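Batch 3, record 17
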Amino acid sequence: MKLATYKDGTRDGQLVVVSRDLSTAHYATGIATRMQQALDDWGFIAPQLQDLYETLNNGKARHAFPFDPAMCMAPLPRAYQRLTGTAYASHAALLGEGEGDLVVHQAVSDVLQGAHDAMVCANENLCVDFSAEIAIITGDVPAGATPDAALEEVRLVMLSNAITLRHVTHSVQSHPSASFSPVAVTLDELGDAWDDGQVHLTVQVAWNGRKVGMCDAGTDMTYTFGQLVAHACKTRALRAGTIVSTGTLSNAGFEKNGQTEWPKGYNCIAQKRAMETALDGKATTEYMRFADTVRIEAKAKDGQSVFGAIEQELASLSA
Amino acid sequence: MKLATYKDGTRDGQLVVVSRDLSTAHYATGIATRMQQALDDWGFIAPQLQDLYETLNNGKARHAFPFDPAMCMAPLPRAYQRLTGTAYASHAALLGEGEGDLVVHQAVSDVLQGAHDAMVCANENLCVDFSAEIAIITGDVPAGATPDAALEEVRLVMLSNAITLRHVTHSVQSHPSASFSPVAVTLDELGDAWDDGQVHLTVQVAWNGRKVGMCDAGTDMTYTFGQLVAHACKTRALRAGTIVSTGTLSNAGFEKNGQTEWPKGYNCIAQKRAMETALDGKATTEYMRFADTVRIEAKAKDGQSVFGAIEQELASLSA
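Prediction for the assembled complex:
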């Protein structure tokens, strides 16, 4: 099924069930009002949401309304935990960060942005970068769970855009926010595209309307979601509603005629600048400016948008 | 006023108001059931809780019951954000960590432990350390708030004990959990002891019943709570319910007869080991073992326990 959270003026919004083709939606009122509620009691609540989802897909939900992604908060608008990993070693290699070992960090989660919310930033001179990522939401994961056991606790999958201020050194300041696709989907919605903790979909990234990335997210994923979660829960349990992000998507470059090529493009500007530096000795692409737009989307084999699109503009915090 | 969260089998527990002398309590039902609810809507809810608190202190609350700290979850049992800083530069200096600059990290908050809950650990050979700290809970803090403005948004103060596994290198694995005092108190409860973002109380730390620390928390605090919060909110807002911890308390040592002395003791075992190394060339105090106990408490001038005591035992995760 596909779930979203509609804006209603509160911090947690209203849980809605969205049809597979993203055309209609229905409030989940009567089942659960908030996404965290559903995650806290998934075994009891999910089957009821699934029933509503099927009724909605069959066009028989009585109070269905047209789905508007601009009305969406993040599917989980605030989370008790967000972790972000370095799932794609080719990203770290490109940026010269670390040895490709798996690193998982705690990340900001007190307010998560909706797919059409502005990316806000106090100062466009801080080298503002986007980052196309995939994220999961877990149920309760016991301490010490193996990667396989950890995958059993994956509840929902989303796309994400995390902002990095590349010229800010303190980590708590340099990663001010993250945004999420309009809908979060259960694993069955991905079909074959979900395999062994990897999402085999092409993630399209456009910057100011220009297609800059088309990463095969299931290729070159060095550490699967199972490994990310198992790493995080090694010494303690993770509680329901934990978001785990891949970190920036990346397809490895390859040699051709003595030069490295990256035909799948880039998923953050820092990748592009590293490619330029590798090829030409210097980076020429500048970071984002106010009013720049970013669009991130993934389509299924049938051309259907799986999660809806993240479509954001960079805006001034003070505006 | 003094607030606590009673265990009721749910993830968020039940908000209770506790009398100033910690002898009686009263459910806040009818005002707010969960602590996060109160924090989300503090301006509206806090005055009602304050009324109940005064009635309780006057012995006139009709359904008051004896307060039992063993029934307490953390005052905020799960938080949308927990940040931990390096407020005491003498701690960093002793441990040879950094240059004494202020560093603030995102920390685990999906489940926070109650004052009498066991500190659980899979393996006692990971060099398990306690850490006596002070923590605040904020309201909504706007991005870019100055230290003075940030202090206006401090809602509650608590004691905290954070576990560190000293022999685990990955940060997400080495800081598995944190525990909090039975009650969280508003600033007026601290009276003169709250001054300019510092808590001028002596925090008593006992390990296996032996008093090991009696830190003057208001002395040697290099970075005040105002500075910690201002650092964290430099590029983004913080939302209501953000916990900000000092990191390990520490009083600086001083020279006497050519040797450094630390008459106020230690607030984590790593401090003690660093003192031993400085004095004798090697650390002899071992880290915690299963069944070890830690007790952390702070008393007001009148001898009254301000927050109640953290009293924990180290237990095996698998037990």
